[in-house]
Write a structure and sequence with these properties.
The protein is an alpha/beta fold and 311 residues long. Helices cover 41% and strands 12% of the residues. The protein has an 8-stranded mixed sheet with strand order 3-2-1-4-5-6-7-8, with helices on both faces. The structure holds nicotinamide-adenine-dinucleotide.
Length: 311
């Protein structure tokens, strides 16, 4: 695995599931890790520092270095304290893995304002706030003349890039995270920071409570959360300095650098369209109509298999 010794990493939401796997993998590769986790329920209620502390104990038992951090990533000042925590504990920060997340699924027609706000806050603001504070830390070091190999790895979802029914709040936040990745990658390149994004699939409390995914099979489990972490390690290597702004769909051993929004069906008139003429051109181009394929088809084309298939 890439040698990340001497690097300092924060993994948000690292007390459980995919974030825990990332924290263990980063520590095994030699990084010192801030294991952040608020420790609430899947819906984001309550707080408990014991999941983060348990992961720290696991890292220490394996000979690594880690500290637990209980900040809420959706709290702008709290995210600043988390970055400060890395600096005070280990002297600096090189790697930020934004992973913390919650779910409050509901059909749009029934979704409450609280369900919308909570999910947008934890995911979208919970990516902005830590990245904003980390970026200020990296700008300062870059301006002082350091050549950085700093990394942000964000966490989107098949729901965000393909669109899953019942998740307008979560999917909109996750699509926003993919867009945030594209822009942050361009802005932070000048400081030596790459910004990439994962669209993972794994057996965690999030998917176990949402889908009927059954237990792990004998042999290789495509849904083992640890399958996602090699992508993080590869992106964190110094040699990955020129791989940035990408969204990687991960299913077992299938890692797919997705093509996002690109030029599609062009209706070019050379002057302002007449609405009737435009409608006629659209109906001619789409004789059978046009609609999103949805998450199941999107995931299959990316080399995966929707958990919804198991429903
Ligand atoms: N499991 C999957 O198949 C899957 C699919 C797509 C995307 N994801 C994304 O992967 C990430 C990890 O999910 P998981 O499946 O491991 O779920 P999980 O529930 O096992 O872990 C998420 C962790 O984030 C923590 N957390 C929640 N809100 C927080 C906050 N405000 N501040 C700090 N920590 C907070 C929780 O306490 C929890 O330990 C999430 O962003 C999720 O949306 C997961």
């Amino acid at each position: 695995m890439p040698d990340l010794s001497g690097k300092v990493a924060i993994v948000t939401g690292a007390g459980r599931g995919i974030g825990r796997a990332h924290a263990l993998a980063l520590a095994a590769a030699g990084a010192k890790v801030v294991v952040n986790d608020l420790g609430g329920s899947l819906a984001g209620e309550g707080a408990d520092t014991s999941p983060a502390q348990q992961v720290v104990a696991e890292i220490e038992a394996a000979g690594g270095e880690a500290v637990a951090d209980g900040e809420n990533v959706a709290d702008f000042a709290g995210a600043g304290r988390m970055v400060e925590h890395a600096v005070s504990a280990f002297g600096r920060l090189e790697i930020l893995v934004n992973n913390a997340g919650i779910l409050r699924d509901r059909m749009l027609v029934n979704m409450s304002e609280e369900e919308w706000d909570a999910v947008i806050a934890v995911h979208l603001k919970g990516h902005f706030a830590p990245t904003r504070h980390a970026a200020a830390h990296w700008r300062e070091r870059s301006k002082a003349g350091e050549q950085l190999h700093a990394r942000v790895v964000n966490t989107s979802s098949p729901s965000g890039v393909f669109g899953n029914v019942g998740q307008t709040n979560y999917g909109a936040a996750k699509a926003g995270i993919a867009g945030f990745t594209l822009i942050a990658a361009q802005e932070l390149a000048r400081y030596g920071v790459t910004v990439n994004c994962l669209a993972p699939n794994a057996r965690t409390r999030m998917t176990e409570e949402t889908f009927d995914i059954g237990s792990a099979p004998e042999g290789f489990d495509p849904l083992d959360p640890a399958n996602i972490s090699p992508v993080v390690l590869a992106l964190c290597a110094d040699e990955a300095q020129h791989i940035t702004g990408q969204v990687f769909h991960v299913w077992g051993g299938a890692v797919n650098a997705l093509h996002g929004w690109t030029g599609g069906e062009l209706f070019a008139a050379g002057e302002r369209w007449d609405a009737d003429a435009l409608l006629a051109a659209m109906r001619e181009r789409f004789p059978a109509g046009v609609a999103p394929e949805g998450m199941v088809a999107g995931m299959e084309k990316a080399g995966g298999r929707s958990l919804r298939v198991a429903e």
